[in-house]
Amino acid sequence: MQDAAETVSLRLRLPNPDERRWITFEAPDRHILFSAAINGKAVTVLLDNGADRTLIDRGTASRLALKIRGNGLAAVTSAMTTIETMATETVTIEIPRALRVEGPMVASNLAPIARALGRPVDVVLGCEVLDEVAVMIDPSAKRMAFHTGASARPEAGTTRVPIDDGGMVSATLNGPSVRLKLDLGFNGVVRLSENAWRRSVRDGVPTGTGSQTTADGRTRMTSSVLAALRIGAVNVPRATVLDGYVPAGNADGLLGTGFLARGPIILDLKGRQLLLLPPQARQASRSWVPARSKAETISPR
């Protein structure tokens, strides 16, 4: 599989801290969608750090008259499926007073995602961007903000959860330890691999079978149980746990927005920390170290 990192490089720019604004978003089925612009044209963006590339829909690229070059590239979605992609010319994604991303994008067919969410999806903002910034998400107010990576500092009442290599956090399910990969593109609480399922929740209280749609637009049949989830100082006595996770690296499963959208958070992957904020901290004025605006060149992995 050819790696798109050979041809794609992005440049990020954050405005000065005192100029940054909140971004409002929609949350269909706990997926995060917000508005941005590509070369000045309005687009809808899905936030998904589980996607290893920032993707633009081929139909959108055509509508915006973007040149597409090359072929044979591949990208991995949050559901660990591989999709065919091609690189575009250099473009600019801009969220005014929030974030600017410049560089060639990776074009792919995002229609299955749009159908699954019942909303247009022009862009998937992936991990090569989200690994470099910190994002504060306030689910109840449906707003978020981008900040300099590794700049978040816990204030009183905040629960800090360390993030290790690969974007994973340590947790327990019914006692046994598991390593869960943080994934904003997964709208459940926890999804486990077969081995972790047998080890942790095999004897949990069954809640039946159903279907689960992931951010790549695929719907899968699942089994689910209720289990006691503990992450740091946070206990969820009856968390819904799904099966069907395809193992990647050392992860035992995914931790999705069913947990992450329980309250305001700061996801700071560069700073290797997940901050679970107290409700009164939504303004987050004390959660950031002052930083000057700067542009930073990054390369997708």
UniProtKB/TrEMBL annotation:
The keyword Hydrolase applies. GO terms for biological process: proteolysis. It comes from the Bacteria. Keywords: Hydrolase. The keyword Protease does not apply. Residues 43-121 form the Peptidase A2 domain. GO terms for molecular function: aspartic-type endopeptidase activity. It holds the Pfam family Asp_protease_2. InterPro entries: Peptidase_A2_cat, Peptidase_aspartic_dom_sf. This is Peptidase A2 domain-containing protein.
